[in-house]
Amino acid sequence: MELQGKVALVTGAAQGIGKAIAEILLKNSAKVSLLDISVSRGEATKAAFGQIYGIENILFLPCDVTSENQLKDCFSKTLEKFQKLDIVCNNAGIFDEQNWENCLSINLVSVIKGTYLGIQHMSKETGGKGGVIVNIASLAGLIPFLFGPVYSASKYGVVGFTASLSLTCLEKHGVRLQVLCPVFVDTKILTDLKSVKTPDEKEKLEMMIANLGVLKTSHVAEGFLQLVMDPTRNGASLKVLDNGKLEYEAIPAILPENPKSI
Asked: Is residue 61 within 8 Å of 35, Cβ to Cβ?
């Protein structure tokens, strides 16, 4: 997909991974709608990007992604501003094992809602021109994660939901679905994760971090860019590993070559 003139909507876009993804889109001449729950950070990000990439190419919309009404409103306002939508990145996420229902609501339920809204507005069945949706998961959505079982469940859910829906979405709606699975990233989520209480957990966590490494947000943005630009990778799960190494997760065959043999 050529990005010049494309319109993207990114959740959790005022900091961390979302901000890096928004910037790489702007660098490649796309227009971006920035969604974030923090008005102060969102306005500051919009102003900073506007000085570099042109304020006319950027829209900031305050949004609590757990509110379906707010999400719907932000999609509508993005279309009002830019007249189309080509790319959706459901990125907003938290780490919170105590308030686990909220963790699931933000990390998984809002991703599902954002995906369906993206399909609704981009579907060729309803007059759209198709597009691409990239959902941000984690390596913790592909392997067991001792330090955050609920966080891991949310990310496994994102991977499973995206891969499953991709089996019919491209053919039916013209919308390609993909998922990005980075290892540890230098963001607030890693800071929150490091607040685990017991010395034993902290030691194990530090060993895991030493083994897997910590990414810059720019590494994740590069992985996002690769997914968006490659039209052959529908349903792909792309891992972003130490030092930004990109590696696709193998997709097992789910049907035999001869369906009659089922």
From this structure: yes
- Three-class SS of residue 58? strand
Three-state DSSP at 10 gives strand
HEC secondary structure over 177-242: EEEEEECCECCHHHHHHCCCCCHHHHHHHHHHHHHHCCECHHHHHHHHHHHHHCCCCCCCEEEECH
**What single DSSP character describes residue 36?**
E
Tokens of 174: 């013209």
Distance between CA 71 and CA 62 in Å, rounded? 10
By CB atoms closer than 10 A (0-12, 13-18, 19+), residue 1 is middle
Q: Is-contact 174 119, C-beta < 8 A? A: no
Write out the catalytic residue numbers: 151
DSSP labels for 132-172?
EEEEE--GGGTS--TT-HHHHHHHHHHHHHHHHHHHHHHHH
What is residue 194's predicted lDDT score, i.e. its pLDDT? 84
Kindly list the strands in the beta sheet with 31-36, ordered across the sheet, starting from the edge strand earlier in the chain. 58-62, 31-36, 7-11, 87-90, 131-136, 175-182, 237-240, 246-248
Report pTM. Answer: 0.94
pLDDT digits (tens, 9 = 90+) for 111-143: 999 999 999 999 999 999 999 999 999 999 999
Which tokens belong to 90?
Answer: 């459901």
